Amino acid sequence: MENLRQFFKNDKFAEYVGIQLLEVDKGYAKAKLELAKHHLNGIDIAHGAAIFSLADLAFAAASNSHGNAAVAINVSISYLKAVTEGILFAEAKEVSLKPKLATYTVQITDEQDDIIAIFQGTVYRKKDKLNVQKNFP
Amino acid sequence: MENLRQFFKNDKFAEYVGIQLLEVDKGYAKAKLELAKHHLNGIDIAHGAAIFSLADLAFAAASNSHGNAAVAINVSISYLKAVTEGILFAEAKEVSLKPKLATYTVQITDEQDDIIAIFQGTVYRKKDKLNVQKNFP
Amino acid sequence: MENLRQFFKNDKFAEYVGIQLLEVDKGYAKAKLELAKHHLNGIDIAHGAAIFSLADLAFAAASNSHGNAAVAINVSISYLKAVTEGILFAEAKEVSLKPKLATYTVQITDEQDDIIAIFQGTVYRKKDKLNVQKNFP
Amino acid sequence: MENLRQFFKNDKFAEYVGIQLLEVDKGYAKAKLELAKHHLNGIDIAHGAAIFSLADLAFAAASNSHGNAAVAINVSISYLKAVTEGILFAEAKEVSLKPKLATYTVQITDEQDDIIAIFQGTVYRKKDKLNVQKNFP
Q1: Prior bond of C137 cis (ω within 30°)
Q2: pTM for the structure as a whole
Q3: Are C90 and C22 in contact (CB under 8 A)?
Q4: Comparing C-alpha atoms, which of C78, B128, C9 is closest to residue D71?
Q5: Is residue B109 over pLDDT 70?
Q6: What mean pLDDT do residues D24-35 have?
Q7: From CA A28, how far away is CA D113, in angstroms rounded?
C-alpha cells in the first residue's frame, strides 16, 4: 500500500488531475476519480480526456505491475454515456502478457455501475526494471 | 479570437491542464501544451494522458467548429516518441463530415516537428446548436 | 435458425471467406472459422484480415440483432497470438445500446480457448428495419 | 516487380479475396480491390471486412518493406462512406519506424477519390529477415 502511494505520487499528471489508485495486483488495477468542476468540458459534462486519464492510470498500474517498465503503444477508447458528477471508477484487466508486449482492457463505470467508457490498450515492455524505491511497485 | 478564448475558458479541463487553443476554422484546429512538471508520469516523461488531452482539445474544437454540438464516440491514439520537455502541438483535420457523424485525424508534434503521436476520432453531431455566447465559435 | 442461415447466406463476403454464424441473440452473436490454406498470409500464419473478418461477422450479427440496420463506424482490433491451423471462434457482446449508437466487444479464441485477438466496435443504427425476409433476423 | 508478385502470391488470403498490390517502396505501399459480388455484405454494400482486408495488404507490404518480418499488433479503422461497386484503392504511409515498432496510416479511396475509410496500425518488427526468395521484397 505504501508502494502504491509512491507510484501515485510519482505520477505527477494523475495526481494533478486528482486520480487515485485504489488497488493494484499482477495484471490488474483499479483507480477512481471524484468529478470536480475542473474535470468538465465546455458543455459541463465530464471531459473525455479526464475519463481517458482515469482509465490510463489503471492501465499504467496494471501493465507496470510485473516489475518491468511498460510504455503505452496504442489505446482505443469508446465513450458510451455522458456523466456530469459523482465518482468514476476504472478497472484494468490483463488480456495478454508476452515478453515484449501486453494488452489490457479497461472498463470505466459510474456510481450506478453503468459503463461510461471502454478502453483497450497495448504496451511495450522494456527490459528495465522499475525502480522500486522511486517508482512502483 | 474572442470566441476562441471563450471556448477555451469554458473547457475547464483543458484550461486546468494548461492547453491553449491556437487556431480554429471550419473542420480544423490547432492547440499547444507547454510541458511542465505536472504533465509528467512516474518515470518523468510526458504522460500519455496529457498528450491525449492536448489532441482531444484540437479534436473538440475542430468538430464543434460547424456550430453543432459534437460529442466524441471513439478515439484511437498511437504513441510514437517519448518527450520530456518543451512545447507540444496538436493539429486536427477533418476527414469526413456527415449530418450525424464526422471523423478527424490529429497529429501531435514537438518543437523539432517530430511526430509524437497520431490520433483518429469520430464524433456524433447533435442537432443542438452550440451556445455561441457561452461556448463556441 | 432458418433466419440465421438467411443472414449468413446474404453476407456474401463472410460466406466467401468461409465464416459460419453459430448463434445470435439480442445483442449477442458467435461465429466460427475453420482455418484453411486460403486464410493464411505470406508467412503461413492466419491472416489478420481473416481474423478481422470472423470477428466482424459476429459484430454485425449482434449489432443487427435488434431489427434495425446497423452500420460499422469504427473498429479497433488487437492481435495477441499467432495461429496456423484449427478452428477460431468469435463471440460478440453488447456493451452499450442507444437509439443511434451501439458498442460491442468481440473476443476471438482458438480451440485451446486462448485469446487470439480482441475487437471493440461501434455501429450507427439506422431507422430502417432490416428486411426480415431477405436479411435478418 | 517480380518480387511484388511473389509477395502477393504468398499472401493466400489477399489473393483469395482478390486484392492486388500495385506499388511498394520503403515504408510505402498501394493496393487495389475491384469490387465484385463476393465483397458485399447482407445489404449489398462493400463489406467492412473486405475494405479492411484491402487496407491490411497495403499496411503489411509497407511494414515489411524494410526486410524485417513485421507483425500487426493493433489496427483501428473508421468507415466514412458506403460503396457498392467500382475499384477501391488503399495507400499506406509510414509515420514512425523504430527498431521494434513501426506505425502506419492507410487511406482507402474510391474511383472518385472520396475517402471510404481511414486505418491506423502498428507492427512489431521481428529480428528475422523475410525470406527474399520466398517472400518479399
Answers
A1: yes
A2: 0.94
A3: no
A4: C78
A5: yes
A6: 97
A7: 46
pLDDT of residue B133: 47
Go through D12-39 and write b for each residue having 16 or more CB atoms within 10 A of its CB, e for each that does not: bbbbbbbbbbbebeebbbbbbbebeebb
How many percent of chain B have pLDDT more than 70? 88
Buried b (16+ CB within 10 A) or exposed e, B104-121: bbbbbbbeeeeebbbbbb
- What stretches in chain A show pLDDT beneath 50? 1, 132-137
Which positions in chain D touch A76 (Cβ < 8 Å)?
A: 74, 76
**ipTM of the complex, rounded to two decimals:** 0.92
Counting one residue from B and one from D, how many pairs have CB atoms under 8 Å apart?
Answer: 36
Q: Cα–Cα distance between A104 and C121 in angstroms, integer? A: 16
Q: Is C97 exposed, middle or buried (0-12, 13-18, 19+ CB in 10 A)?
A: middle
C108 lies in a domain? yes
B-C Cβ pairs (cutoff 8 Å, strict):
19
**B94 and chain A: CB distance < 8 Å anywhere?**
no
**Residue contact D101–A124, C-beta within 8 A:** yes
Angle, helices A48-63/B48-63, rounded to nearest 10 degrees: 160
Q: What is the widest separation between alpha-carbon atoms in chain C?
A: 44
Query: Distance between CA atoms of D128 and D45, rounded to whole angstroms?
Result: 40
Length of chain B (residues): 137
Q: Does a structural domain hold residue D30?
A: yes
Q: What is the pLDDT of residue A81?
A: 97
Average pLDDT value for chain B: 91
Look up cell 508467412; give the residue.
C43
Using one digit for the tens of pLDDT, what is the confidence trace for D53-84? 999 999 999 999 998 899 999 999 999 999 99
Residue C102 lies in a domain: yes
Is B132 part of the contact surface with chain A (CB cutoff 8 Å)?
no
Query: How many domains is chain C built from?
Result: 1
Asked if D101 has any chain A CB less than 8 Å from its own CB, the reply is: yes
> Would you say residue C135 lies in a domain?
no
Q: What angle do CA D63, D96, D69 make, to 5 degrees?
A: 25
Rounded to an integer, what distance in angstroms lies between the CA atom of residue D10 and that of residue D13?
9
Q: How far apart are CA B46 and CA B107, in angstroms?
A: 16
Amino acid of residue D79: Y
Confirm or reject contact between B70 and chain C (CB < 8 A). no
How many C-beta atoms surround the C-beta of residue B43 within 10 A? 21
CATH number at residue D102: 3.10.129.10
Which DSSP category does A46 fall into? B
The whole domain housing C41 covers 2-129
Which pLDDT band, with edges at 50, 70 and 90, does D8 fall under?
Answer: low
